[in-house]
Amino acid sequence: MSDSRQRELEHSWKQTGSEEEEAAFLLERVRAGDLELRELELAAFVGHAAAVVATTTPAPQFGSDLANWAEALAQFGKEACARTAICVTWISYEALELGLPDDALSAAEAWAACPCLEHERAADLNPDEADIRTDQSEEAANVVAALEEDDSYGPGFYLSCCLDHVPKERLPEARDRIRSELSSWALGSGDPVRARVKARQMKVADG
């Protein structure tokens, strides 16, 4: 019955494109155990319109106080912080035409795609030995290497440092890309980080 109800709500949403219809579909997924409430709340936090309707919680403003925004995001865990840091670091990479990611950004994405202890340790880089091309990519790796229980220098702190490097004029772009990447991951509709990692792996395998 639940699967049938989900299909019905999904069909209705895709027919109309209504945020309210999508919100009903998302809430049914939560009710059926197909989506965690915390994942829905994360999507709402980053501004996914239907998730905001479903949770009746307006997304906090992005840009006016990035430190507080980053610390608030940290409630959703280190992976959410890391993926946000990765997202804004790519904006700088593309603007500077740096091409392939450096060691720091690669390590951060490797952990986000497979959040295991091995990848976490690999993100704890020695700046004197690693290829680190931007301050942002270094902070993204720091998010991964940080201890979640560290109140002073945890993932939220290093995410805040990463966001500080986003030029003011690019904050709207950062907001939109964070919303797109984080909500896709949270709601299970796609994983941009894993897709990038897989694409690089395939390129290496192909020679």
Mean pLDDT: 92
Q: In whole angstroms, how far apart are the ends?
A: 49 Å
Main sheet attributes: strand count, strand direction, barrel closure: none
Work out the helix count: 12
Instruction: Give the tally of structural domains.
Output: 2
Number of strands: 0
Pairing-aware structural class of the strands and helices? mainly alpha
What is the chain-wise order of helices and strands? HHHHHHHHHHHH
Poorly predicted regions: none
Shape descriptor: globular
Q: Name the quaternary structure.
A: single chain
Rg is 18 Å
Report what the structure shows.
With about 210 residues, the protein is mainly α. It is built from twelve helices and no strands. It has two domains: about 1-55, no CATH class; about 65-205, no CATH class. Helices cover about 70% and strands about 0% of the residues. It is globular. It starts with a helix and ends with a helix.
Give me some keywords for this one.
single chain, mainly alpha, globular
Topology:
Elements: H1 2-16, H2 19-32, H3 37-45, H4 49-55, H5 66-73, H6 78-96, H7 103-113, H8 117-122, H9 135-145, H10 155-163, H11 171-187, H12 192-205
Helix pairs in contact: 1-2, 2-4, 3-4, 3-11, 5-10, 6-7, 6-9, 6-10, 6-11, 7-9, 7-12, 9-10
How would you sum up this structure in a few lines?
This protein has helices at residues 2-16, 19-32, 37-45, 49-55, 66-73, 78-96, 103-113, 117-122, 135-145, 155-163, 171-187, 192-205.
